[in-house]
Amino acid sequence: MSEENPAPAEDAEPDEEQPPAVPAEQADPEGEGALPEWARKELTKVRGEAANYRTRLRDAETKLSQATSPEQVEAALAELKSQNAELERSILRTSVARRYELPADLADALRGDDEKALEAHAKVLAKYVPAALPPSLGGGLTPDDGGEGEMDPRKLARLSRRI
User: What pLDDT does 144 receive?
Assistant: First the structure.
């Protein structure tokens, strides 16, 4: 048996990264068009947030790399810490709002400095949020599905005899 070297050729440039190949079985054949409208909106929102976070990260990296004095480094770190605290507070507000089933608009309206204060305010707001309607429990036809008006038992009897 001859031995073959499965390693790639050494003359290929290591700096070039190729995207990983996705097998045809794992690829989404229908794309985003198959998603319901609410899912597309949520996906667009999440992608926008992720892009915002990537931009913030690049800005922070740029500020830190351009800092030449300890004061500039401290200022950049202080700004990053304040942004981080703001993001953590936003995540906490969102999680408390979800826990008490508040709409997304009310999540931003929650007041409080810590989780207990946010939960207390969420309990107060939850009293004023209408309960979600249960899904329709109808299992069959509704009385108005015939569309022709009144039901005539004689007519139904004649039709059933012919069959």
Answer: 57
Token digits of residue 16: 């070039």
The dihedral over CA atoms of 82, 88, 93, 95, expressed in degrees to the nearest 10, equals 170
Q: Which comes out higher in pLDDT, residue 163 or 87?
A: 87
pLDDT for the residue 116: 92
Tokens of 71: 């004061």
CA distance 105 to 20: 39
CB 111 within 8 A of CB 117: yes
Neighbours of 117 (CB within 10 A): 13
**pLDDT tens readout for residues 109-131:** 888 888 899 999 999 988 888 87
Task: Using alpha carbons, select from 128, 127, 110 the residue that is nearest to residue 119.
Answer: 110
